[in-house]
Amino acid sequence: MQIAMVGLGRMGANMVRRLLKAGHECVVYDLSPDNVAALVQEGAIGATSLAEMIGKLETPRAVWLMLPAAITTKIAREVAEHLAPGDTIIDGGNSYYRDAVDLSREFEPRQIGFVDVGTSGGVWGLDRGYCLMVGGPKDSYERLEPVFAALAPGKDGSGAKPGTGDTAPLGYLHCGASGAGHFVKMVHNGIEYGLMAAYAEGLNILRAADAGSEARAADAETAPLHDPQYYQFDIDVGGVAEVWRHGSVISSWLLDLTASALKTDADLSEFGGKVSDSGEGRWTLRAAVETGVPAPVLSSALFGRFASRDGDEYANKIISAMRYAFGGHSEK
Amino acid sequence: MQIAMVGLGRMGANMVRRLLKAGHECVVYDLSPDNVAALVQEGAIGATSLAEMIGKLETPRAVWLMLPAAITTKIAREVAEHLAPGDTIIDGGNSYYRDAVDLSREFEPRQIGFVDVGTSGGVWGLDRGYCLMVGGPKDSYERLEPVFAALAPGKDGSGAKPGTGDTAPLGYLHCGASGAGHFVKMVHNGIEYGLMAAYAEGLNILRAADAGSEARAADAETAPLHDPQYYQFDIDVGGVAEVWRHGSVISSWLLDLTASALKTDADLSEFGGKVSDSGEGRWTLRAAVETGVPAPVLSSALFGRFASRDGDEYANKIISAMRYAFGGHSEK
Amino acid sequence: MQIAMVGLGRMGANMVRRLLKAGHECVVYDLSPDNVAALVQEGAIGATSLAEMIGKLETPRAVWLMLPAAITTKIAREVAEHLAPGDTIIDGGNSYYRDAVDLSREFEPRQIGFVDVGTSGGVWGLDRGYCLMVGGPKDSYERLEPVFAALAPGKDGSGAKPGTGDTAPLGYLHCGASGAGHFVKMVHNGIEYGLMAAYAEGLNILRAADAGSEARAADAETAPLHDPQYYQFDIDVGGVAEVWRHGSVISSWLLDLTASALKTDADLSEFGGKVSDSGEGRWTLRAAVETGVPAPVLSSALFGRFASRDGDEYANKIISAMRYAFGGHSEK
Amino acid sequence: MQIAMVGLGRMGANMVRRLLKAGHECVVYDLSPDNVAALVQEGAIGATSLAEMIGKLETPRAVWLMLPAAITTKIAREVAEHLAPGDTIIDGGNSYYRDAVDLSREFEPRQIGFVDVGTSGGVWGLDRGYCLMVGGPKDSYERLEPVFAALAPGKDGSGAKPGTGDTAPLGYLHCGASGAGHFVKMVHNGIEYGLMAAYAEGLNILRAADAGSEARAADAETAPLHDPQYYQFDIDVGGVAEVWRHGSVISSWLLDLTASALKTDADLSEFGGKVSDSGEGRWTLRAAVETGVPAPVLSSALFGRFASRDGDEYANKIISAMRYAFGGHSEK
């Protein structure tokens, strides 16, 4: 079928490629003409403006947005200006699910369907297929199912088939009403933060397994290490990450990537340790808090990222100030 | 080659089966004669006591212990009484790595090698192969390598070969001196706790996505829910777990198992929510603390297990008592 | 001066008493006629409806709301219907600061001032005075200062004086524009949760100091306790709480209350350990998350409360299900 | 009575001063002759070696050690060499309680009493008195009670009297057998870490209350801030700390010190935010873990200190490496 794609960054461009390969017709637009031109060379139909892009579509139209969360709502509204009853806007970005709830209501009177698609798979999705978590009206979902089927990994040997409702084994799922897709993707990313931090903490402990071979200061500002004989291991962290991939309970795709990165550079010296977050982890935590669900692991992972960017600096100064005030302790 | 196995529980018995299948000779012993008899039927050589078992071995002997951590050291010492210089004891259980450090030193003057093997794979290891993290003297490791190679998953297409040092892709790895194997397995389990909790928290949030459809009390003891319209989703948690297995960043073996369990019973009604821990998570945390490595995710996961078994009850009573004292708040 | 009070629960009634004692005139209203009658006996002027109450006030009127957060906005709007330009509404409850931001804007065109007052002190405030964190227009704040001065503890020997701006030593402070008072109170309560949990966790550890005198199962589902000789203390938890009040770094008012509660009943047997939360801790966490500030302690404290009310149950069942799936572990 | 003091740092020197003021005779020793000389000028009896110091004591002798944890055991053994049956060694430092358990057993055959005293009060103890948590044999405790009574704050108006057992209101308490004093002090410090972090996190959130007035990048690496209108407050953090001291639920001695520090320098610019820890928080966590008590707040506080000293750096690099691997995300 025919679909328009707005936003040809890492994710959007690869999704177009995967759709083209499956025989779908893609009309594409991006602020950068170079991004458009690149995909035209690969078989897409290019456009130099939203209006032109939409003009090239047959009704009922389907326009897929793949944009940073901060601008998605604005562009969705611009697109909607050009659409007619029966058309559909799909937001496949890392948007806040509440925006999907709101936009779907906003567009409803104009009979423009709004479908939110949580998309996971990263730069690997082009080859592996993307995991798609879809929210929105059932009829919009069903009309777009060929697109989802093409983007998702597809056949897994379980016998699952498109059009049957039981499509999870194929890598896409209708999760519920508008917002449900982004809600599920939000939680997916919250979990992702937790998984990443769990591996990172563990590997960091392995790296410290030789702590007993270093001398420590014997002053009141330094915690003594009892029994240094138990911390004399020089662990090959990358080798351990690799062996865990084979038969262990903690094997996973994230571990595959980690082992690969450590093989290239065990010290990860090209990274500084300032970890970004894109909003999903924050929204997950808000949902946990508002619904009364404990999420200590997911919150610890998120706060670790904040601290990596020095969000804890003022707090730490306060603690140092207290220590100085009650005990005369100076920072080392 | 020939090896003795002490402890024929879930793990030990399956490891014997996998070794037999690979053509190794296994002499087995367990407190339960039934456990021994079962394996004799499958081709193992049975024994009715440690002494008899050891008597059936040719030198240099190798005795593998697969026992609860609380009794491993005691049995290791009993076994050692019957051994001679050149023999080896292997501890494949979830033992504390410090015991391995200590025992290896204790046995060294008697020239009995002590090898600690962290073993992951659970009940699935019989078919999938076990991931093995090995610590101990290089020569002991090398003599036992055929056993490790048989227990581990083996060929992964990477071209890795036994005897080359680069055996991680095969699923076993010499991690360092005595204790290193159990140290790595300890951290492995610490990570495992974190991963499990990350998924569990996330799925719990998904389950609460309909919180806005319930009425809440409007009193001073109840947090109000702003904007209940954003919590009206009725998510199929099991379906989501399944779709995440296909193409998403958080796909993993633990997720495979979770999706399978939720398919059988979405409410998990046969479980009460009291989660045991076997020591490894605790030891991981101790190592983090002693080496100065932050492990907020791993500790949150461990403390969640403690709380599931009511380890937080007295603390919560104290908090309720404070609330009553300063604000007259009664528990609901 | 004259002030109206709506909501005569624990907090509201005592605040009226404190205001009466300082010579202010209080017109009071509550859904319960008994609550009104009780204060009329103590010198307040009663009313049987909002309208009647407001009718008894001279202009410019000042109406203080002391209500559950869930209904404050609704009542504020009802009150505003009866007010005129120049009048002021004060919200002294545990309301969400965002409501104050919104309401102040809503009332602005009608020239009704909106002042938000975070109030701390609990049932002790009547005697000790309340700590007041005030947000709102400077002129409204200044007109109401005599009321704040009467409610707050007052003279502390520092020489601070009302009307000088430097009123913090007196126990009240103009924190900024509308919403700032509740924002500061919100964070105050977030901290409160953290402090309470810190004491509770510590005292819980003291209580467990005899763990080495109990026998533990020696199976694969139970973590062994190394060195039980180090856990043989039978600590008088209440005595310790008391001694810490005298000269230690951790002395505080919350500790005073805790020591007192433990003196009455060391086992706190009248409490069940289900700890409520009233919203402030949740909002604090949301603010932390949205501004990128790590708050691992405050979030841990909040999640502990959720878990005390079984918010973690489904998550724990998932973990048990995973353990059963990979290792055949049954719950104990 | 007469007592010897070894270690005349901040804590030791002030304790001697307080003892002298109460009329006790103090024989003092320190590696630094200057430290000894200073106290001799104030009335203490100086010594140039441990042996000389002990030679100046009448039997039964009492020697109080006030030293860094890392060297206390070594010096205790040296002191014991010079003592005789009936003498007592007191360790008042931040030592590990297990050392007290072990040393008390080691000295028992020689009839040298070992008393462990957890000491809180910091540089303020000289004037306020110290809070003392005592472990050890009852008879040693009783003989030393005049010393404890002099060091502790003393009369609190409750009518409590030395020699009655109910001495907690005076600021000292016999907590149990050898090790109990340091165990209680260990937990005290664990709590202290939690309290400090709770205040620090909260004040950090207050400081960020103007986050909505800054522009944020609108890219995929930056979490968008919805509703910036709710983060427009410019809070006087020091003023808030001050007002909370008066009538609020979170008033405490640590808050007193914090308000004072913020008054001097609201930006705390002389601190860098690298927070030391002296071991007690680590040991508290180990005790929690080994006894199965959840301590998420205390552990978060401790890990925050580790992270402030970059203990999380390698973990964060791993997370950045994962993000790059799956999504092509570069660090900002």
TrEMBL record, chains A, B, C, D:
Species of provenance: Devosia pacifica
Keyword Oxidoreductase in record: yes
The 6-phosphogluconate dehydrogenase C-terminal domain, residue ranges: 181-330
Record-level GO BP terms: D-gluconate metabolic process; organic acid catabolic process; pentose-phosphate shunt
Origin organism lineage: Bacteria, Pseudomonadati, Pseudomonadota, Alphaproteobacteria, Hyphomicrobiales
Record protein name field: 6-phosphogluconate dehydrogenase
Family statement: Belongs to the 6-phosphogluconate dehydrogenase family.
Pathway(s) per entry: Carbohydrate degradation; pentose phosphate pathway
Record's keyword terms, sorted: Gluconate utilization, Oxidoreductase
